[in-house]
Each structure stands twice: as structure tokens, then as C-alpha cells.
Write a structure and sequence with these properties.
alpha/beta; Immunity MXAN-0049 protein domain-containing protein; 15% helix; 5-stranded mixed β-sheet; Imm11
Length: 151
Amino acid sequence: MKPDHRPTKLQRIGRGLDISPLLDVDSYTSCLLVNQTFKDILEELEPGVHQFFPMEIFIKDEKVGDRYWLNICNRLDTYHPTLTYPRNERGFFEPVKGEPFSVVFSVDAIGNHHAWHDKFGQGTYISDTFAERLQAAVLSGLHFSEPKPQQ
């Protein structure tokens, strides 16, 4: 993304920091806001791959923090080609309620990537290595989803 017309400030409305603290990792509409520690870890794992746009966080006229608007720049096809099903004719995972399904990620397709969006799925994915580093940093606002068992 070109940074020319990106917002640089975010206004928090509603509850104050005493009720809703500023988290280290947070989402705001469609963006992921991360702190310096998160940025440092991801930059160490994948230097120069992702974009981090500085954001100043305000409540009314008071600056309450700094974060980065993260743009994850890896877009990969990481579903295993034969073990993930059902997939439609375009390749998107498309489960049918009540029918068996399986989601399996390909270690080969993931390779040395640590943060990505899947071309045929939804959401943001991270490597086990990145997850372990984030957990060790004890950042607030992190939520990890466990892999779903095959059905």
C-alpha cells in the first residue's frame, strides 16, 4: 500500500482507558493495530516484508498511545491441495453444514512465512514460531485459535 493517503491518527470514543485499556494488539474496523514489540518480532522473522504505518491514538485531545497499522503483505495458498476439502471450482474452502470437511495447511506452502492471508480462506494466519514469540512477549489483546480437528 502507498502511505500517501493513510490515516495517521485514531480517535477512541466511549469508555476511557480505566475501563477499556489500550491493548498491545487490537483491531479497529478492518485494520490490525500493533505495538512496537509486535513489530520488532515480525520484522526479525520477516524483515522488510510487511508494512507498518505509524498511528497516534487519541481520546479527545489527549494522545494516549502509539501503534502501527499492520498491512500483512504475504498472500499465499497454504491449504493442502488434497487434504483440505470441500473446495469449490475456484479453490475456495466451502464447507457444507452437516457434511464432512477437513482443513489441513501445507508446511511446504507455508515455508518460511510467519504472517499471511490465505488466497482461498479467511482471516490472518501466523506460524507457530511467531505465535510462540508473541506469547513469550506477553502482549495484551492476543487471541489465538486452535486448529480444528479433521471431521
